[in-house]
Amino acid sequence: VQxxxxxxxxVQPGGSLRLNCVAPGRTFSDxxxxxxxxxxxxxxxxxxxxxxxxxxxxxxxxxxGRFTISRTKFNNTLQLLMENxxxxxxxxxxxxxxxxxxxxxxxxxxxxxxxxxxxxxVSA
Length: 124
Known about the structure:
Layout: E1 4-6, E2 10-11, E3 17-22, E4 32-38, E5 45-50, E6 57-59, E7 67-72, E8 77-82, E9 91-98, E10 113-114, E11 118-122
Parallel strand pairs: 2-11
Antiparallel strand pairs: 1-3, 3-8, 4-5, 4-9, 5-6, 7-8, 9-10, 9-11
């Protein structure tokens, strides 16, 4: 595992969480990074991606307008701010990096480095 993601928790509907992802010992500052999620019994789903410069972002339809992806190059950190969380946002969230990409990618097959996953549970 070359990425370490964290920040998952149990939160009530309508609440917020911020996920973090770091890459100890390696920089992905010049590469595309993204967040995916996987619920029990479902396929891995695209959540958000950001290009190498941090100038362009893309979001899955289910999270558009509620989630914000960002990156901080000086400390090699990727973040996902999740607001107005819904029960259907529950799942394991993974950060990912594509070591040969600089533009937006939405397919998990394009990413060759992954975090171990962090559990997000939205429940009353």
